[in-house]
Design goal:
single chain, 53 residues, mainly alpha, 4 helices, 72% helix, flat
């Protein structure tokens, strides 16, 4: 997946473990690769903004 997203494996693991947020371009590519629905995207955004607050 890291190769498909054009990021390092380390960066992918950090995103996967929620230790880092993906850049906008990486997030868009991840959404496309996983075929996420708008509802799933909304849930993710709510979760990460809640964790930040």
């Amino acid at each position: 997946m890291a190769k498909k997203l054009n990021i390092s494996l380390r960066q992918y693991v950090r995103i996967d473990k929620e230790e880092d947020l993906p850049r906008r371009d990486v997030l868009k590519n991840l959404i496309d690769e996983l075929g996420l629905t708008n509802e799933e995207i909304g849930e993710y955004i709510r979760k990460i903004t809640q964790d930040i607050a």
